[in-house]
């Protein structure tokens, strides 16, 4: 075989230690089945601290709202509820179910922001509990005000969501979105906020752009500042702005592996080396008569500026038309800065385990590894994240029974041609054996339960919360829904 092309996951100490505990992981899968999702609630508390440090460095106040949609876990939500100081940590919910879940997990309404598409039930519960509503449109603001009046509720805080910003004098503008009110129409929103002052309290504005582009986000942030200025001229009293999520995660341990892999992938698609993908799949690229066409549509797995560091760089950006650092402008106006990280707060917060069922070699020499899990349980491929699983041996490794490295395709458990957990050749240090586990690391953000379903009556993964007392105490576990923060020793704030 040619040289293995690894894409090793970045593992921080907690997740690495867990992966290095086969004697703990195997009985869990025996008891609870494959696939199995594991979440690490204490990690999310550490991640919050990473964001808070950036706030402190820029002397900014405001709340870090975890975007709940990244993971359905109860343990993560409850652990966040226990994370202090209370004023700094909250949750962004995007459905009635998520709002109920957050309230039930101990987050009080002052720590919740309700975003996403709303139906009357969702809007009513948000209004009744005085949860801040990121209203999506003038019509939604009107509907909310009507509910407040009809049920004689106290004023509800609102943080209208804006989109489609432009910067005067520059050519950068933000992408279109199906959510939010175009910034050019903010005047109409402010008119309504003034008109309904008895039922809604205009606390500021928000945006969420599904992009990593710093320049685009700087335009949006500045656009919000301009709307807040206008609001103050009208006598409204905005207190801050919410810049949404999209801080990203650095998934790969080694940037050089990523460079090498993408180079070899293009060579393979041009027919200049042995195939690296199933049936010539190109992740958006294709070779045509010796020329590469299309664009590589994968998540940039190696992303050193991600999470808190990305926030830090955004705040240091110069406002495109005001010409001064964004952090300075926020500070001078005494505005709170709110953020809604989803993926970035779930970084290193969990993994997905799948049992190896069968290893088969085709007539063409391809090695197929069938797992007790499918591509909906492990959403990496669907999201274009190319990341190797970690082999968790079923039996203690005997000396000499390791290697040599092999390249394999990972097949799922659905009776469906397309059910491949990887359409690329995945390199492992040795051939897996039935009874081994493959651990997909860092799946807690969107890859764990976002698309899992009961197709073919296959089981969906159970989820367990895993924690330990101290740095190297024994691991403990419970079902995700049984986790409550008092189980964890650390009051770490
Ligand atoms: C999805 C979403 C987020 C989180 O995005 P990430 O990329 O996971 O950080 C934040 N805010 C809103 C409104 C969202 O829809």
TrEMBL record:
Keyword Ribonucleoprotein: no
Protein name: Alanine racemase
The Orn/DAP/Arg decarboxylase 2 N-terminal domain, residue ranges: 46-269
Protein species of origin: Streptomyces tamarix
EC number: 5.1.1.1
GO MF assignments: alanine racemase activity
Cofactor entry: pyridoxal 5'-phosphate
Enzyme class: isomerase
Glycoprotein as UniProt keyword: no
UniProt xrefs under Pfam families: Orn_Arg_deC_N (PF02784)
Keywords, comma-separated and alphabetical: Decarboxylase, Isomerase, Lyase, Pyridoxal phosphate
């Amino acid at each position: 075989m040619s040289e293995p092309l690894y894409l090793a996951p970045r593992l921080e100490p907690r997740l690495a230690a867990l992966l290095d505990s086969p004697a703990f992981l195997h009985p869990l899968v025996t008891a609870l089945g494959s696939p199995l999702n594991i979440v690490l609630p204490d990690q999310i508390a550490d991640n919050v601290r990473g964001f808070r440090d950036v706030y402190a460095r820029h002397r900014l106040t405001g709340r870090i709202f975890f975007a709940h949609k990244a993971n359905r876990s109860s343990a993560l939500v409850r652990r966040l509820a226990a994370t202090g100081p209370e004023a700094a940590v909250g949750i962004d919910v995007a459905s009635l179910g998520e709002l109920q879940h957050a309230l039930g997990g101990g987050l009080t309404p002052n720590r919740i922001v309700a975003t996403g598409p709303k139906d009357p039930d969702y809007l009513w519960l948000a209004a009744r509990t005085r949860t801040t509503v990121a209203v999506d449109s003038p019509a939604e603001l009107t509907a909310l005000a009507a509910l407040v009046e009809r049920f004689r509720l106290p004023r509800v805080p609102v943080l209208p969501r804006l989109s489609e910003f432009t910067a005067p004098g520059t050519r950068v503008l933000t992408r279109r979105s199906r959510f939010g009110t175009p910034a050019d129409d903010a005047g109409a929103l402010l008119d309504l906020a003034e008109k309904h002052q008895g039922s809604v309290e205009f606390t500021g504005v928000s945006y969420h752009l599904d992009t990593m582009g710093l320049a685009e986000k700087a335009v949006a942030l500045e656009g919000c500042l301009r709307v807040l200025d206008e609001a103050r001229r009208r006598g409204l009293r905005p207190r801050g702005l919410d810049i949404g999520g999209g801080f990203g995660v650095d998934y790969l341990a080694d940037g050089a592996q990523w460079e090498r892999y993408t180079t070899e992938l293009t060579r393979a698609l041009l027919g200049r080396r042995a195939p690296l993908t199933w049936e010539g799949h190109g992740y958006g690229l294709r070779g045509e008569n010796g020329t590469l066409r299309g664009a590589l549509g994968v998540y940039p797995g190696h992303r050193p500026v991600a999470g808190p560091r990305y926030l830090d760089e955004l705040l240091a950006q110069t406002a495109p038309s005001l010409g001064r650092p964004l952090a300075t402008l926020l500070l001078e106006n005494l505005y709170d800065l709110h953020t809604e990280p989803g993926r970035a707060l779930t970084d290193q917060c969990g993994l997905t385990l799948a049992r190896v069922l069968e290893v088969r070699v085709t007539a063409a020499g391809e090695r197929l590894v069938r797992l007790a899990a499918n591509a909906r349980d492990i959403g990496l491929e669907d999201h274009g994240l190319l990341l190797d699983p970690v082999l968790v041996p079923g039996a203690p490794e005997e000396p000499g029974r390791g290697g040599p490295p092999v390249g394999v395709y990972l097949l799922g458990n659905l009776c469906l041609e397309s059910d491949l957990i990887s359409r690329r050749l995945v390199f492992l240090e040795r051939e897996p054996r039935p009874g081994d586990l493959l651990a997909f690391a860092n799946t807690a953000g969107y890859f764990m339960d976002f698309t899992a379903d009961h197709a073919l009556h296959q089981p969906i993964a159970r989820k367990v919360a895993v924690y330990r007392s101290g740095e190297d105490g024994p691991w403990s576990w419970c079902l995700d829904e049984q986790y409550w923060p008092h189980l964890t020793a650390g009051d770490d704030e």
